[in-house]
């Protein structure tokens, strides 16, 4: 028996392929949306992984450095280092800010860290690690910065000495690593005018400028212009140490919040990007519905353009299943072409997206299955219409 | 091949019910012998198409009896369980417009019928080629339908109607879009095929050019048929 669907497709191949390509671009957008979600989750996991920490110690009753503001004293690391099972401890600061770079504004997450301690960039792809105490930076390659470039962060200039990869915030902003002290200054210190203003105010306050108490005013003013806070303390545990036990010790005795790796992952994936992922899910649902409607419309139109042929086929004895198979095979072919075009389009344009787009094979397989199911469902509208065509219409009258 | 091509007795068809009922066919008696081509002539609204639809087993008559190829297919009710199969195997259709399947080539348009009946593709195509040769269009066997002239398309549609060697062919205004020469050629082909394949053919027509070619003519008026002898002019 002749395959009527393939004959019809090859008879008007150009039209069919162009229609499939149009559908494919829509499927490409759908696959990209799924890729954006996967990219967000993967970014979060890589961020946790590359930090090299087993525990995140943050301000009590907060969700930690990525999800909520947290501020802890920078000397607390000493007492945490004394807890059994703790191997290394590092202070870190996080600040999302805008920097000017080659005449363009770039949004980055400024990370202050102590070289050699948890919190430093996981690996470098170019340049060298930070070796000086001040004014050197390591940037994520997505920032567009190059080794040797100089950038201004607030009142100081930094030299980019190394590049890293896959170190982005939950918003997709590339990270810029600088020495902790510089980061603290950037994050907590005020500008010169504000400092002068604050000093004047303090000096005018009789409580801090008492006659007969020499050194009090200077001490208060000094405390106002230095910062001893960080956003989190990252803890690396000794091999075999129980992370839950250590975390509980910190919570109980240090009055701080401590999150394990899995808890931090839960915060990043389930809480921080939950709204974004719901947004993407909504897009995916809408795109699936639109795709289904488009396939249904195309197949319905293609079928209705063949009313006379279908009536003749029915008149000369073609079975309903022959006609239904023809329509369904066309819908599936359209879906298949659409999927292939969509997959290629998504693969081609994924690197151009500002955020990481992770196209997983399992998502592609799932996508193909959904596309084919949508095509089958969408073709039922056309099949029903085709089966309602009266063979008598071929005779006319 | 049976002795009876088409035999219709007291066929009636009523559309609607009650006050709005319309009797499209009131009393139709006719017969067509195997190898014979008869004309069915009548003004618009006389019931020609309704009769063709009844004979083509696409609408159910209200009463009467129909035999096709020696088999009673209708006697107050359908006597054949699968009308689609009946149409496929026992009735050939030729339309005013050829209504060929545009996405199949000439051979496959003809071979489709035997294929639908379960004949293997190679045999179905061989049969199609045989018919196309008989109809003098074998040289267009691989052509697309859109590449054929009107006359060639009509020949292909006749080949398709004959593809399953049905005892009956129903031709609805088959010469309407053709000029005199081509119209007479189509009628000549139908006559030749009727004789060659012992097929009973009814040609519904208004075409003054071809009416004189029929040996027997059925006039249909107000849902009733009247038989008369035709001129039987040689084509």
Poorly predicted spans of chain A: none
Spatial arrangement of strands, main beta sheet of chain B: 7-8-9-3-10-11
Number of strands of chain A: 12
Largest sheet of chain B: 6 strands, mixed
Give the overall shape of chain B, derived from the CA principal axes. globular
Radius of gyration of chain A (Å): 31 Å
Structural class of chain A: alpha+beta
> How much strand of chain A?
15-25%
CATH class of chain B: Alpha Beta
What is the count of DSSP helices of chain B, taking H or I runs of 4+ residues?
6
CATH superfamily of chain B: P-loop containing nucleotide triphosphate hydrolases
What distance separates the N and C termini of chain B?
A: 26 Å
Evaluate the radius of gyration of chain B: 17 Å
Class of secondary structure makeup of chain B: alpha/beta
Q: What is the CATH fold-level name of chain B?
A: Rossmann fold
Order of helices and strands of chain A: HHEEHEEEEEEEHHHEEHEHHHHH
Oligomer: heterodimer
Query: In what range is the share of β-strand residues of chain B?
Result: 25-35%
Q: Under the CATH scheme, which architecture of chain B would be assigned?
A: 3-Layer(aba) Sandwich
Number of helices of chain A: 12
